[in-house]
Amino acid sequence: MRICFLADSEAINTRTWVDYFADRLGHDVHVVSVNKAGELSPSVTLHSLGTGDGTHGTSGKLALLRHAGRVRRIVARLSPDIVVGYRVASYGFLGALTGFHPLVVAAQGQNVVFPRRSIPKMIFARTAIRSADLLNSWAPHMTRRLTELGADPGKILTLPRGIDTDLFRYRSEPTGDCRVISTRTLHRMYHVDVIVRAIALARNDVQGLSGTVVGDGNAAEELATMARDLGIEDSIAFEGRVGYERLPELLAKSAIYASAVPTDGVSASLLEAMAVGCFPIVWDNEANRHWVEDGRNAFLIGDSDPRAYADAIVRATAAAGLRSRAAAEN
Fold first, then answer.
1. Residue of 26, 95, 97, 131 with fewest CB within 10 Å of its CB?
2. For the residues 298-311, what does the mean pLDDT come to?
């Protein structure tokens, strides 16, 4: 089968998904992306639009309009069996503009299905939803929102993409009792600064506490500067972008996984941490409550206050029994 993905070639979720279809299932996979590069499998053909301007924010999504004609021509030339628009209000919208069918639109993140404050994003989302032959929603709360935006319930498949548990395996002997790890993208909207500040605060109560920050993005430099200003430069390791050959190992060396992202669909980063056995300290939202319960197999935090996260880190490091039970359940 020839599959054409319209997706961000630099996003880790895109890479793992398309590589799986190409390498594990043997399909002829093509990716059309506004980004100029991506660490995709050699089995995947990348069709770069060569702008590198991304699709974040309303301005980025409006910029997609100028690519519509070129994307339509690429899809027509490829003549795929199916087109997948990965994310609703950006590449899903581009998929709708191609006029190609069958079109699958994958609703990954909650923030791209809930464009309440942006009229253009709302229009883009409704256009993609109306055009899709199948909507792949990753969680029930996203399914509800899709129907609110006019989706036919009969066209929605509610199923998370999941993770590779051959790579992310539970460790029966936890290590790194005093290490906190963050694996979210280093964009400002992911609030990794909250985790860095929380580690600095928690170090006052937890001797030897350290941190690992995995990922890259537009906030990487300011986060490193923040760590220096907070005096924890020697206690927090910024690993940059890490491949799946190293990520399970870094998770296995950490006791706690922390994330202050307020909205999610299904967080693959959370699932990866749970699979390895890290204790999650994450935002209290519907996406996370689908997987964890506060005080049983995670701590859920109700806001972006670094002190609240620091207090949770202190409690988690002192509760070895709770973390052990949570690791087995997760």
1. 26
2. 97
